[in-house]
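Need residues for this backbone.
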């Protein structure tokens, strides 16, 4: 059964051995929310992936992302036989090729520019077309005592990271180093192995480079900073 906000607070409080007069529930909740965001920074888990169905607006080229957006995977415009995946164009390339898109009028979009909290379509839509966005989102903050984290089966890991934040905040450096270097890595490794593996996928042979993955092994000085030294 998934842990609630109250469960997280109780567990972290037991780990740091502080009562409510020493550390408030609100402060522990901040550590818990920092932890799930930190974890989402490290890896995009399957439950963070979302599909949004929307539509374009005639004569409008700029659209906003969700405030919790992490990455965009692709955008498709759906209109019968003309349906297609939009081609991503870097902002600088677009501005070099077509500094003022309005000059070219409106039509069926083929390209998009991802920049900041907005994306722009080119050509500017001349009608309302179905638009499908595949993206990843950061998990919603926990607030109410009964809230559950969107990240599935990662309660122990979130507690361990929050405990590490807590010990660092309390300047208990040895305990922070223990949790960060001994407990967190094992749980994090397990979370990666249990994540959706996309087995229905045909691999493409690619060359090897100097910056190849280290296979998830720990690097760096974890005893001085348990949040550093891992390449994901």
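Answer:
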């Amino acid at each position: 059964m998934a842990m609630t906000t109250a469960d997280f607070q109780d567990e972290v409080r037991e780990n740091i051995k502080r009562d409510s007069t020493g550390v408030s529930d609100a402060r522990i909740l901040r550590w818990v929310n920092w932890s799930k965001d930190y974890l989402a920074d490290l890896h995009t888990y399957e439950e963070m992936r979302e599909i949004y169905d929307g539509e374009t607006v005639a004569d409008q080229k700029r659209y906003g992302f969700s405030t919790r957006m992490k990455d965009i995977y692709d955008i498709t415009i759906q209109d019968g036989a003309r349906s297609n995946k939009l081609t991503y164009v870097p902002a600088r390339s677009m501005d070099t090729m077509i500094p003022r898109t309005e000059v070219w009028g409106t039509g069926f979009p083929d390209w998009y520019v991802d920049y900041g909290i907005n994306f722009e379509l080119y050509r500017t839509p001349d009608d309302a077309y179905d638009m499908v966005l595949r993206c990843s989102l950061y998990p919603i903050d926990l607030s109410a005592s009964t809230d559950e984290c969107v990240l599935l089966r990662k309660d122990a890991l979130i507690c361990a990271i929050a405990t590490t934040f807590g010990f660092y905040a309390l300047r208990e450096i040895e305990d922070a180093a223990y949790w960060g270097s001994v407990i967190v890595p094992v749980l994090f490794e397990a979370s990666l192995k249990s994540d959706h593996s996309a087995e229905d996928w045909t691999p493409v042979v690619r060359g090897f480079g100097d910056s190849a993955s280290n296979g998830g092994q720990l690097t760096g000085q974890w005893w001085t900073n348990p949040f550093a030294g891992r390449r994901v």
